[in-house]
Design a protein that fits this description.
By secondary structure, the chain is mainly α. About 60% of the residues lie in helices and about 5% in strands.
Length: about 575
């Protein structure tokens, strides 16, 4: 509950700070949304994102000089729970939150949700570390922080709770239900007390419009919307990567890239209107509530392309933020475009209204980009209050999620991990595997036998019944291979005339392990070489023998840790 309350305060503070920036920079009335404005008050305001990018670049430069050689990349909640047992830097999280507020406040097409979850999870992690919580409990507490942040932002406790289960903790368990839901409720209530405005997704009046029943014929269009949104979501994620690649290829300094990106975003705002700016909260309300019904098919398509480009340019050029809310807005536009196309091709047969399609598309494209099918389903339910449309949303998000998983394989967050070389597919705890290294499992009490040792001397030193595997090193102390004692005795008995040398009966000459490999990689090496034991060398170049590891010991320790993680996940005492 304390985590939820802290998260509610942090979310309210960030939201108010970003809104104050937008009001001051763009001359908005108090409480007015930038993306809901009909037009920029002056063409010069299109330069505001570039000025914000310049300020962000200066902030990054100043922070880099202050942090110096100790600079480390900031870990987000998914990576923290997957690799670091829930450990996050509070200072780094505050830094990300400030960058996110500045980026969103100057009009860059990024949402605040990434900053919300970062600061709330960072606070939760610091709280857990202060109380010296166990690894599993700390991971749950980080999930509580993220759940409270999303619940506070959207006024939707169920959405926040399932965001934590699906994206931050990585699984649903009875043991995590109570703390996560309690944190989400507290975060939502605290944020509502501090911020009097409506939640980020508030669709007044849609419950009545969407409250009618649906027949089975509406399911097919919903599935088609989900399939289309899956493809569009992949294109958006690829677009961000393309912009990043272009920035690197042009060798634009990291401190200057946001300013150039801001120029692009401002230009798009001049062409397509303010709806491409910031997160898009006001614009989403316009389109889903029906106030934006005047736009035709061509205008909707142009707005979709402009918003997608603005989001890709913003994130790809270095503005801080995420695609959570942008994907909701883009999904609503995609749903309305689908309705307009269907009305042209098959007029009167769709069975869905523009608002229906907007809500379905909103959830489906968000699932394609962010992930979390149940998260987006509950968001639609809590935003509309309509159970019938929630059923159609569920069908669409399942199709979108499966399509993206099979064809692309990543959400936006895990795709960026992949680009960095991290093999993270979600928040499932794999950090314990990385800590279970060959160096921690191997036997160190062994002395390699010189390669030039005569066979008879070797047999006298290693009679039958002694340890069956002996590591051999050459004259320079480099690993040469492994000799099995029974095989050496058999070779001596079966050979007529001159006895064989150790070099003649060596095995695994070029197969070895290094200390930094984890238990899973070691098990794969045993399986690949069909060996029951492998030598461990310091590195592949020096090949100095530092230990020996057996397959049986590796699998035993791996199985023990796996069982311990399973019991911790379901709440059993470990």
């Amino acid at each position: 509950m304390a985590t939820g309350c802290l998260a509610g305060v942090a979310v309210s503070a960030m939201g108010l700070a970003a809104q104050a920036l937008r009001e001051g920079l763009y001359g908005l009335a108090h409480g007015a949304r930038l993306s809901a404005a009909p037009a920029l008050a002056s063409p010069l305001l299109a330069l505001v994102p570039a000025l914000g990018g310049l300020a962000l670049g200066l902030l990054v430069l100043a922070a880099a000089r202050l942090r110096g050689a100790r600079r480390r990349p900031v870990i987000d909640p998914i990576e923290a729970n997957a690799l670091h047992g829930g450990r996050m830097s509070l200072r780094g999280s505050l830094y990300v939150a400030v960058q996110n507020v500045l980026s969103n406040g100057c009009g860059a097409s990024v949402g605040l949700e990434a900053g919300y979850t970062q600061i709330a999870s960072g606070l939760a992690s610091r709280l857990g570390l202060a109380f010296e919580m166990r690894r599993g409990d700390l991971r749950t507490l980080v999930g509580c922080g993220a759940a409270a942040a999303i619940a506070a932002a959207f006024g939707a406790p169920l959405t926040g709770a399932f965001y934590a289960f699906e994206l931050i903790i990585g699984t649903y368990a009875i043991a995590t239900l109570t703390p996560v839901v309690a944190a989400a409720l507290c975060g939502s209530l605290v944020a509502r007390a501090f911020a009097s405005g409506p939640p980020l997704v508030d669709l007044p009046g849609t419950a009545e419009a969407l409250g009618r029943g649906f027949t089975g014929t509406e399911t097919l269009p919903a599935l088609a919307i989900g399939l289309a949104c899956a493809g569009l979501g992949i294109l958006v994620m690829r677009g961000v990567t393309l912009v990043e690649a272009l920035v690197r290829a042009a060798r634009i300094p990291a401190t200057a890239a946001p300013a150039l990106g801001g120029l692009g975003v401002g230009g798009l705002a001049l062409l397509a209107g303010p709806q491409v700016l910031s997160g898009g909260h006001g614009a989403l309300h316009l389109h889903v509530s029906g106030e934006g019904a005047g736009l035709g098919l061509a205008a909707l398509a142009v707005l979709f392309a402009a918003k997608a480009a603005a989001s890709a340019i913003s994130i790809g050029s270095g503005f801080r933020g995420g695609l959570f809310f942008a994907s909701l807005f883009l999904g609503a536009l995609a749903g309305k475009i689908f309705f307009a196309l269907a009305a042209l091709v098959l007029p009167g047969t769709l069975g869905l209204s523009p608002t229906d399609c907007a809500v379905i598309g909103m959830s489906a494209l968000a699932v394609a980009v962010v992930g979390g099918p149940l998260t987006m389903t509950f968001l639609a339910l809590e935003a509309t209050g309509s159970l019938p449309v929630t059923g159609l949303v569920l069908a669409a998000v399942i199709v979108a999620s499966l399509t993206v998983r099979k064809t692309f394989g990543y959400s936006f967050a895990t795709w960026r991990f992949h680009l960095r070389g991290e093999s993270i597919r979600g928040a499932h705890d794999i950090g314990w595997i990385r800590s279970l290294t060959v160096g921690s499992l191997m036997r160190r009490d062994l002395k390699p036998v010189p390669l030039d040792t005569p066979l008879q001397a070797f047999l006298r030193a290693h009679p039958l019944g002694s340890p069956s595997r002996v590591v051999v090193a050459d004259a320079e102390g480099r690993y040469a291979g492994i000799v099995t004692v029974p095989e050496a005795h058999a070779a001596a008995r079966e050979t007529e005339g001159e006895a064989p040398r150790l070099a003649d009966i060596l095995r695994q000459r070029d197969t070895f392990l290094t200390p930094e490999l984890n238990a899973k990689q070691a098990a794969e090496a045993f399986d690949r070489t069909e060996s029951e034991a492998l030598a461990v060398v310091d590195d592949a170049r020096q090949r100095r023998v530092v230990g020996l590891l057996t397959e049986s010991h590796t699998l035993k320790r791996y199985s023990e840790e796996l069982d311990r993680q399973r019991r911790a996940m379901v709440g059993e005492t470990v």
